[in-house]
Amino acid sequence: MYLDRIVETKREETAKLAEHFSIDKAIETISSMPATKGFAQRLTAGKKRDMGLIAEVKKASPSKGLIRPDFNPVEIALTYEEAGADCLSVLTDAPYFQGSGEYLKAVRKAVNLPLLRKDFVIDERQIYEARLLGADAVLLIAAILTPEQISSFMKTAASIGLDSLIEVHSVEEMKQVLDLELYDGALIGINNRNLHTFETSLAATEVLSKLVPAGVPVISESGISSTLDMEFLRKTGASGVLVGEYFMRQKDIAAAVHNLMGPLQKEGSVHLHG
């Protein structure tokens, strides 16, 4: 199973990271860095369409292999920004997704959008590292963390200005996460991909979003590739979507964003009909 292999690799990576990474030094550096850009806020109050969009900068995946051969992370990020994405997700896992922390750093310099470090966080050093790389949010995957770890990592993230996208893909995981005290800036990500079979079904968002109390924003992730999918997800009450592979396979990424998400709302237009 991919997930077990990935976590095993992460254990090796974080053991190496621990040899030279000082949390105290990281905190010192972070204290003089600019404030983060409010990832969760942008996807709720600040979104540019009726559904928020986290557009993903993604070269490859373990199940699909190479997705975009002509991969230029900065160019892709700038295209997403121009097309009205609210936030970006940047893969930093190297062995399985051909990502890199350097991609995140480069994208941070190029765009003004809030950024998610998309990786498999199993050690708090990765959270400090995410902030140093230029992230505004981290991904916490319930399938590879205990509820205690999620709670602790969320607290660490909040202490250095990072929001948390907490990803669940089953009823059991959702219940465990909702039992935790969710910090301001926490979002629930519902992964429509079954992490054991790698099959996707938007029914996951439909079923799991019903468990989420009002006021906790839900992001639907994976398997989203058509306006029909978007119509379906609007009815679930999701605040936004995370889309990567679909955009990465398109020749004209900007056109794909507009086609999938619809036109940008004009300033103030949201209030005209209220």
TrEMBL record:
E.C. designation(s): 4.1.1.48
Record keyword Lyase present: yes
Associated pathway: Amino-acid biosynthesis; L-tryptophan biosynthesis; L-tryptophan from chorismate: step 4/5
Reaction(s) the record says it catalyses: 1-(2-carboxyphenylamino)-1-deoxy-D-ribulose 5-phosphate + H(+) = (1S,2R)-1-C-(indol-3-yl)glycerol 3-phosphate + CO2 + H2O
UniProt record, GO biological process: L-tryptophan biosynthetic process
SUPFAM superfamilies: Ribulose-phoshate binding barrel
Domain Indole-3-glycerol phosphate synthase per the UniProt entry, residue ranges: 3-260
A matching Pfam family: IGPS
GO molecular function annotations of the record: indole-3-glycerol-phosphate synthase activity; phosphoribosylanthranilate isomerase activity
First-level EC class: lyase
Lyase recorded as keyword: yes
Gene3D superfamilies: Aldolase class I
Protein family per UniProt: Belongs to the TrpC family.
Protein name per Swiss-Prot or TrEMBL: Indole-3-glycerol phosphate synthase
Underlying gene: trpC
